[in-house]
């Protein structure tokens, strides 16, 4: 399974724009997410207040992170579980594999875990001979397709219903069974997964929150697959990261209030489960062992840095759903686990900036991502900081860099600047009248959209637009 895009963002995005089935799937998904979110937040009296509560809970957790993580570990131990610390993806994968080996596991069921994607856990376990079955419907579909997820809450959003039906027919030996309806596709997956749940030795899930005061792990799903994955096998392993911890149940509640509304437009997800330790005497079900593996992977370096606000992210996906770039190119174009505006910030921070230099440019800076982010993360500002860092480190191509230098010099010469922009304005008006195709200018921008001819001056055009907007 390829985890990374085959080329740079620009190459991947150009291919995505040509992919008709992808474009159909993205168009269908887009309005659904946006409308449902709008409806969900209109049903509460003061969504801004809920957002502020959630942001305060997370900010105070980040300010006390080491102490809260210690408290979380003590309380997990007190309830009979164990916490493991992984500095790198490789360490997390080794810890999980060793845990599986202690119970002679041959089959593992797995709920959705972005941390598992970050460490490429599936490949690690499969190479060691374990059979691994994804149990989230979207993850199950892309496991069959041998593809990485393209959205953090809807991993198979890039697939059409017809593509899913074809995949099931290829892998499930169904004969001529009708799979034209969504309900029949869901039923088909459920039937396939039922036996896997019952025969798994280990269940791996992610976590939405970790609660320091109780040592609990909160998991939010809409399918119930996370609960079956966690409670039926003899061992439950949670793969998660350090910034998920909050101090109290009340703080967790504040975040849950905004999570589902921002993500799927529900007031609450169908299943919100708090796992606290393994099965106790008298419990009807639950695993015999409970382990939490906490990944750092560069996150602690962000504490106290200009990029710390990114650790407030609760992975709701709202910024992806409202991003004009993401909604046109989909998640695979971003080349790593986290797509959209949050991915364009997080990916260069958790990896190196140079190979992902194009991601901070993958934004129109329209500001919608920041506007809809329930955690108030200043995504355009963080992208701008990454652009500046890339510029300081000379990562951009020479021609682009030289162009920027010429522009920055020109912008400090008012008379010359005015003269040049007037000439440019005249050229654009002239090319508009003659219908000259400027498809390669600027940087292919006009290949997919009209470049309107400006008014008499740029200032007059701007004033006209302002009038229309007011
Ligand atoms: S950056 Fe904000 S909107 Fe985007 S996924 Fe994170 S919390 Fe949600």
Set down the secondary structure blueprint.
Layout: H1 9-18, H2 20-42, H3 47-63, H4 65-78, E1 82-86, H5 89-102, E2 107-110, H6 114-119, H7 121-127, E3 131-134, H8 137-145, H9 161-172, H10 182-199, E4 202-205, E5 209-211, E6 216-221, H11 225-231, E7 235-241, E8 245-246, H12 249-263, E9 271-275, E10 289-295, H13 299-302, H14 318-321, H15 326-329, H16 340-350, H17 368-372, H18 379-392, H19 398-410, H20 414-433, H21 458-469
Parallel strand pairs: 1-10, 2-3, 2-4, 4-7, 5-8, 7-10
Antiparallel strand pairs: 5-6, 6-9
Helix pairs in contact: 3-12, 9-10, 16-18
Describe the structure.
- The protein is of the alpha/beta class and 470 residues long.
- It has 21 helices and 10 strands.
- It has helices at 9-18, 20-42, 47-63, 65-78, 89-102, 114-119, 121-127, 137-145, 161-172, 182-199, 225-231, 249-263, 299-302, 318-321, 326-329, 340-350, 368-372, 379-392, 398-410, 414-433, 458-469; strands spanning 82-86, 107-110, 131-134, 202-205, 209-211, 216-221, 235-241, 245-246, 271-275, 289-295.
- The strands form 2 sheets. A 6-stranded parallel β-sheet has the order 1-10-7-4-2-3, sandwiched between helices.
- The protein is globular.
- The mean pLDDT is 92.
- Bound molecules: iron/sulfur cluster (SF4).
How many angstroms separate the termini?
Answer: 50 Å
Which assembly state applies to the chains in this document? single chain
Low-confidence runs: none
The total of beta strands comes to: 10
Strand content: 5-15%
The coarse overall form would be globular
The profile of the biggest β sheet is:
6 strands, parallel
Helix coverage percent = 40-55%
The radius of gyration over CA amounts to 24 Å
Q: How many alpha or pi helices?
A: 21
Instruction: List all distinct small molecules, including ions and cofactors, that are bound in this structure.
Output: iron/sulfur cluster
In spatial order, strands of the major sheet run 1-10-7-4-2-3
Structural class: alpha/beta
Summed over residues and divided by their number, the pLDDT gives a mean of 92
């Amino acid at each position: 399974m390829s985890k990374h895009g085959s080329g740079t963002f620009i190459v991947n995005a150009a291919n995505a724009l040509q992919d008709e089935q992808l474009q159909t799937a993205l168009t269908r998904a887009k309005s659904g997410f946006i409308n449902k979110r709008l409806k969900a937040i209109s049903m509460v009296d003061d969504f801004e207040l809920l957002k502020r509560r959630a942001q305060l809970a997370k900010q105070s957790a980040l300010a006390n992170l080491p102490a809260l993580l210690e408290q979380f570990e003590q309380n997990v131990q007190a309830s009979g579980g164990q916490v493991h610390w992984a500095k790198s993806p490789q360490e997390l994968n080794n810890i999980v594999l060793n845990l599986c080996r202690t119970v002679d596991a041959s089959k593992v069921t797995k709920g959705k875990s972005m941390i598992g994607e970050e460490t490429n856990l599936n490949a690690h376990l499969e190479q060691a001979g374990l059979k691994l079955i994804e149990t989230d419907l979207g993850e199950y579909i892309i496991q069959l397709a041998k593809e990485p997820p393209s959205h953090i809450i809807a991993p198979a959003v890039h697939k059409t219903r017809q593509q899913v039906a074809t995949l099931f027919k290829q892998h499930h030996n169904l004969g001529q069974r009708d799979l034209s309806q969504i309900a029949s596709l869901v039923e088909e997956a459920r039937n396939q997964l039922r036996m896997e749940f019952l025969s798994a030795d280990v269940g791996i899930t992610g976590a939405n929150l970790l609660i320091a005061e109780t040592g609990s792990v909160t998991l939010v799903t809409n399918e119930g697959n996370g609960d079956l994955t966690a409670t039926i096998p003899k061992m439950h392993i949670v793969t998660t990261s350090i910034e998920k911890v909050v101090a109290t149940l009340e703080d967790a509640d504040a975040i849950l209030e905004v999570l589902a509304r921002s993500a799927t437009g529900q007031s609450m997800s169908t299943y919100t489960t708090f796992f606290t330790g393994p099965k106790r005497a008298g419990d009807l079900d639950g695993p015999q062992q409970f382990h939490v593996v906490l990944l750092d992977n560069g996150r602690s370096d962000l504490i106290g840095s200009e990029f710390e606000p990114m650790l407030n992210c609760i992975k709701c996906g709202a910024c992806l759903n409202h991003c004009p770039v993401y909604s046109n190119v989909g998640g695979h174009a971003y080349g790593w686990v986290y797509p959209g505006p949050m991915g364009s910030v997080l990916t260069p921070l958790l990896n190196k900036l140079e190979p992902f230099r194009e991601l901070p440019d993958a934004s129109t800076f329209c500001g919608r991502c920041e506007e809809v982010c329930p955690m108030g993360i200043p995504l355009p500002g963080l992208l701008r900081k990454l652009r500046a860092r890339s510029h300081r480190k000379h990562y951009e191509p020479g021609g682009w860099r030289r162009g920027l230098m010429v522009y920055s010099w020109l912008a400090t010469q008012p008379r010359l600047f005015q003269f040049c922009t007037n000439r440019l304005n005249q050229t654009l008006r002239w090319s508009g009248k003659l219908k000259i195709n400027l498809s390669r200018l600027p940087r292919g921008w006009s290949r997919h959209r009209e470049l309107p001819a400006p008014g008499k001056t740029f200032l007059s055009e701007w004033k006209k637009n302002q009038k229309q907007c007011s």
